[in-house]
TrEMBL record:
SUPFAM superfamilies: Clavaminate synthase-like. The lineage of its organism: Eukaryota, Fungi, Dikarya, Ascomycota, Pezizomycotina. GO terms for molecular function: dioxygenase activity. This is Phytanoyl-CoA dioxygenase. Coiled coil: none annotated. Keywords: Dioxygenase, Oxidoreductase. Transmembrane segments: none annotated.
Amino acid sequence: MAPGALLHETPAAPASKATVAAPTENICTIPSRFPNLISTEFQDFRAELAENGFAIIKGAIPRERAIQYQEKAYEWIKSFPGDLDMNNPDTWVEKNLPITNSIKAYAYYCVSHEKFFWDARQEPGVLGAFAKLWGTDELLVSFDAMNLTFPNRKDVPRRPPWEHIDQSPMRRVVHCIQGLMALSPSGPKDGGLVVFPGSHKLNEEFFDTQTDKKSWQPMKDVHVFTRAELDWFAARGVHPHKVCLEVGDMVMWDGRTIHYRSEPTEKSNQIRTALYATYVPASLASADQLKLKKQAFESYSGTTHGPHQYIVVRPNGVCLPDGTPDPRSREASLESPEMTDKLLKLAGVIPY
């Protein structure tokens, strides 16, 4: 999936033979256009982003509306053929559920353009946080996925942690801040987001000393960490932390912060419902990327975390595990949003 503080002085640790330090002279790194985007000098969530790599915006969506969005998400997933009953765990099985993407989120069947998803993206508390972050309200938003995780499913194995970042090693300092809106509670035992606080501060040191520069790709905004690599961070005091959220909260995190989606524990009975959305200034998008973004919008397609670059139009024609076309594939959303100028500008369809 797709995509975004200063260096932190730490004691040096010896590199293993498998991770010999690579010389970084003459490597063409990509500096940030916003090196001061986050700082501990701010008196708000931007200081938390700078210090910890993530921040929680309490009540970004009023609780009552967040609950309504969750109800609409339930209507969406129940609209597929099958006997899905949100109150009956015996029905939480593959034959009753649409197909997810590689990280077990719902990114197909036009879900990115359902009215409830677009309404949530336009919530004043959500837009306001990103407008303050970037210093402008002229923003683009990603056509991202929805997470709807049923706890303790009996038909699929638990997904192991997938510790990763959404920023290429070639990108230096902060480039992207991602967002997730919680439509359900996410307590210590529930499924949710796990982050490694402070890992963003060690980003450059890690890649400069522990990886081979030949693996660096500017157009591949992801790095999945091995256990040995995570041990390197652990030796510097960086450990996983489960982010706990209430209904309507939004968590924002630096693309350099190691994170993954956690599975609910056996003691959880909470159906996790969350919407991913990342915003950047519209001025960052090129004409070619805006053309692709418009194409994705007009075909009700999802993209990636990136709202303005490396736009990949995901097909709505989904295939079943055996490779045959999924007859449940859709060409349009169930409930279309109101096509206001505000929405069309966020979508990149019309200019600011």
